[in-house]
Amino acid sequence: MFWGNDMVHLDHLTIFVGDVARSRKWYIENLDLRLEFEIPSRNVAALRDSGGFTLFVEQSSAMERAPSCVLTFRVADVEAKCRELEQRGVHLEVRPQRLFWGYGAELRDPDAYLVRLWDELSMREKG
Asked: Would you put residue 59 in left (φ > 0), alpha (ψ -120 to 50) or beta?
């Protein structure tokens, strides 16, 4: 469907974290996000994925940082990505398998946000 100039799309998402530096490092090292910019005085970092979506990690109080969303990332190869993460010592809550939402894996970031990983081929063939 052609949306024209009036297309609405989700541009960014902010999650509240306990330590911006720790979260910035985790998402950069484990999910290959890139640092777009930081505002140290506000304890915020903007992390961009390869599709142009920006995830803001903002340091906040414990009450505000209760995990309130699920972050789902499409990767090139979910099995290979999970092997890479495990080699880095990242714990997978669910190794790649068929789940209610399709074929993929699940893990937690440092602030307990649920992170789901999937790839197009595995989803199509195994999901």
From this structure: beta
CA–CA distance, 45 with 36 (Å, rounded to integer): 8
Q: Measured on CA atoms in the order 57, 89, 31, 93, is the torsion positive or negative?
A: negative
Helix (H, G, I), strand (E, B) or coil at 114: strand
pLDDT for residue 99? 95
Sign of CA dihedral 75, 77, 82, 85: negative
| Residue 117 to residue 127: CA distance in whole angstroms | 13
Task: For residue 84, give the nearest of 36, 29, 11, 21 by alpha carbon.
Answer: 29
Q: What is the pTM of this model?
A: 0.87
* Domains contained in the chain, CATH given: 4-126 (3.10.180.10)
